[in-house]
Amino acid sequence: MKKWIISLLTLTLVFALSACGSADKKGERATVGDTVDYKIIGIDPGAGLMKATSQAMEDYNLSDWTVVEGSSAAMVATLKKAYDKKEPIIVTGWTPHWMFAKYDLKYLEDPKKSFGEDENIHTIVRNGLKEDLPEAYQVLDNFHWDTDAMGKVMMDITDGANPEDAAAKWVEENADTVKEWTNGVDKVKGDKIKIGYVAWDSEIASTNVVGKVLSDLGYDVTLSQLEAGPMWTGVADGSLDAHIAGWLPITHEDYAKKYEGKFEDLGNNLEGTKLGLVVPSYMDINSIEDLKK
After folding, report:
1. What is the tens place of the pLDDT at every residue in 194-242?
2. Are 83 and 162 contained in the same domain?
3. Which domain holds residue 218?
4. pLDDT confidence of residue 29
5. DSSP calls for the chain
6. pLDDT in tens, 73-115
């Protein structure tokens, strides 16, 4: 009987120790990298955000990590899937973006400044636009709004509204702001203008709003969705009249330098953008440096 009791106690102790070790491995001993399989969910491979992320991988010596290329839509879908299950995930993110209004997220601190300082979005027009389409030029030069205004349009689109309808709704509800953009501008009769944009939610929102304002002034507006490179090239070679999606000084730095002198920068149309690595607030991690632990 005593041997049976001793054997049972020994077996129980072995199971207890085994369970304890497993919990430690999955809990306290598991690194952030273990929980996300050492993957960061990225976006389009040609985006400036991805270039900055690669720089961060080098700066923080994260050679064991992989940045998964995809698209902004795929990134958000992956984030939603993980967030709904309260699972850990790390994504490349930027502000303004509607996901910060929909989910409780935070940027990881970037002490090495791999992602640079906060950026601004610039309005870029082709050389000669002021002479060819002076009324449109003035509207583009006057155009300026903030992240809250942009966020309202982005959320409407995210909730299922057609971008044109969401833009029209915002223009109707913000007549005073639109009046500031169009003050002293005469209407035209079917003058054509072509504006490019990248398929980021922020740029879809802003470009459709500007397109609606110009249409109301009588312009025949064409909005063309492009990758960042062709968008900048189009303005530089004159096949596009403008874009209002110039993220500077970092994200589109290469394009701005490449085409220097072949476009006119009308300045900021929105201040306070941000790039970086983003995680749900429920994750116990605060800095990119924590990824090395």
Report:
1. 999 998 889 999 999 999 999 999 999 999 999 999 999 999 999 999 9
2. no
3. 119-273
4. 61
5. -HHHHHHHHHHHHHHHHHHHHHHHHHTTT--HHHHTTTEEE---TTSHHHHHHHHHHHHTT-TT-EEE---HHHHHHHHHHHHHTT----EEEEES-THHHHS-EEEPB-TT-TT-S-EEEEEEEETTHHHH-HHHHHHHHH----HHHHHHHHHHHHTT--HHHHHHHHHHHTHHHHHHHHTTPPP-SS-EEEEEE-S-HHHHHHHHHHHHHHHHTT-EEEEEE--HHHHHHHHHHTSSSEEEEEEETTTTHHHHHHTTTSEEEEEEEEEEEEEEEEEETTSS--BGGGGG-
6. 899 999 999 999 999 999 999 888 889 888 999 999 999 999 9
* Domains of the chain: total: 2
| Domain identity same for 283 and 164 | no
Residues 168 and 250 in one domain: yes
Do 129 and 254 belong to one domain? yes
Assess whether 107 and 132 both reside in one domain.
Answer: no
Q: Are residues 269 and 130 in the same domain?
A: yes
The pTM is what?
0.73
